[in-house]
Amino acid sequence: MPHTTPVPPVRAATRRRHWGRDLTEVAALFAAMAAADLIADLVNHGPDGGLLLMTSAAALLAAAAAHVWWTHRRSGRTPAAAVPEVPAGDADRREDAEPTLWRLRTTVRDTPGSLGAVCTALAGSRVDIVTLQTHPLAEGTVDEFLLRAPAALPAAALVLTVADAGGTDTWLERADAHDLVDTPTRMLTLATRTALDAAELPLALRQLFGRCTIRSIPAAAGEGPVQDTLEDTVMRLGDPSGGTITVQRDHLPFTPTEFARARALVELDARLGVRVPDSRHVVTLPEGNELTVRRAGPEDRTAALAMHDRCSPATLAMRYHGPTDDADRYLDHLLSPRFGQSLAVETASGRLVALGHLLWDGDENEVALLVEDGWQRRGIGAVLLRKLVELASEAGRESAYAVTRATNTGMVATMRELGLPLDYQVEDGTLVITATLPSPAALPWAAARR
């Protein structure tokens, strides 16, 4: 789209020229009337009226020819003020700007040439089709494009181009370099991640469908197997570990093809069963003790219950924000890989002394820590929190929050030691601290390690 520069002075000058031309035309009209009256008198009373008429006609023809010649001569020399010029720098920047990546989805009729019409219209706007997927429906076909469009082409113009070519229910959002991966490669990558770690299933579904909300709902008492269903913008999938996984988008309906992809990932997870990566990291405390930080899972429930028994009621109440008798029943949920990722800290003898949890809460993420009383204030909480934040950042999450009591100065200090932007919300003695997360490489301690 050409760049337009406002030119008020040119418009004003054009308006002044129009007034001058009108006055000239009025004066010429009066002069013509006077000349016509004079010629009529001469013809009626003069000695040779016919010769006078022929002479006047010849003079008028010569004047008309001169006027045509003068008009053509000036047409090739338009005054500079009448044609606004686009600054060369702006035009160059528009032409040289990096193309914009878009994800576009539209519905076309299931007839020959419908898709071709959309592709031809996009080509006419200098839009490059990088990838194309088709989702057959009962009526029509949903076509999903990854487009590389000129930077000067606005989103509204792109949508109108598709609509004029026959596309309906068009949806458009910005894409990035990660979307350049083709769909089969993306599915294989997500399947591999899911196969290695059961906690990756909700993350894989989110990355597969983009902007959506994933929730895991535990099974109710006596509830049987859940049937997989697709209802417009909501998918409900039976969780292999019990309960339901709900995938929801705000506006864009899911297609049967997307439903089949989601079911394939869930079936893969069900066939492989519970699995936790055997990743271990040894840390040395200031006093010289070596501790191992590793992933935790349902198999650690017995050790976690023993640690609960060694914790004071005050420590358990600070962690679980409720009666200490209820602390044990939370462990099944916390250690399940379906609801997040957990880390355990154990001594050289294998004794569990701390737990950290990163819990998926829809689009948000909660971090929580529990350190046995005898091991508190030794830096274990800081190590755990950094590891949890790294996991959240690697999963593409933009923030993580911790819920604690306003009197828990230890947790507040640990969050501040992250060196990340923090937001504090206090209500009825409960403090919610939210940290804004950068990319994994931009985390303060990651930069320090380099």
TrEMBL record:
Domain of life (superkingdom): Bacteria
Keywords of this entry: Transferase
Bilayer-crossing regions: none
Location of the N-acetyltransferase domain: 291-438
GO MF term list: acyltransferase activity, transferring groups other than amino-acyl groups
Signal peptide (residue range): none
InterPro entries assigned: ACT-like_dom_sf, Acyl_CoA_acyltransferase, GNAT_dom
Protein name: Acetyltransferase (GNAT) family protein
Source organism: Actinacidiphila paucisporea
